[in-house]
């Protein structure tokens, strides 16, 4: 069954270079996204204390700009999750845009999941 594409925007108060490290490195991701992250080439292994390890492959990225991962369970589909740094040309305000895919009917749960993750990231960055 096809998943639904969802997008969120979170204002961030930090430097883009620092934010990118938290998005694109195993060390950074383990600070806020999962309990532990191991990077092996383009494959990232995410583990949480309450569940099994999950593998995602880094399928696209642009330094200081965005990262796009595809979960192993989504291989062969167009599903992915992407984190993009957006800087407003006029105000220089920085935002983190999230693109994700979830099952139809799970949009609210997915939004709450990302809001919780981003709150955790903001605490780690001191960017609340």
UniProtKB/TrEMBL annotation:
Gene3D superfamilies from the UniProt entry: 3.30.530.20
Domain of life: Bacteria
TM segment ranges: none
Segments forming domain START-like: 3-127
Name recorded for this polypeptide: START-like domain-containing protein
């Amino acid at each position: 069954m096809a998943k639904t594409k969802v997008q969120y925007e979170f204002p961030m108060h930090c430097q883009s270079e620092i934010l990118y490290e938290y998005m694109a490195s195993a060390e950074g991701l383990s600070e806020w996204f999962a309990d532990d992250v191991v990077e092996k080439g383009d494959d990232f292994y995410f583990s949480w204390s309450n569940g099994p390890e999950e593998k995602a492959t880094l399928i696209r990225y642009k330094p200081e700009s965005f990262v796009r991962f595809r979960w192993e369970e989504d291989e062969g589909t167009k599903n992915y999750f992407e984190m993009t740094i957006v800087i407003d040309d006029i105000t220089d305000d920085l935002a983190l845009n999230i693109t994700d895919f979830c099952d139809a009917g799970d949009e609210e749960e997915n939004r709450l999941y990302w809001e919780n993750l981003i709150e955790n990231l903001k605490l780690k960055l001191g960017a609340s």
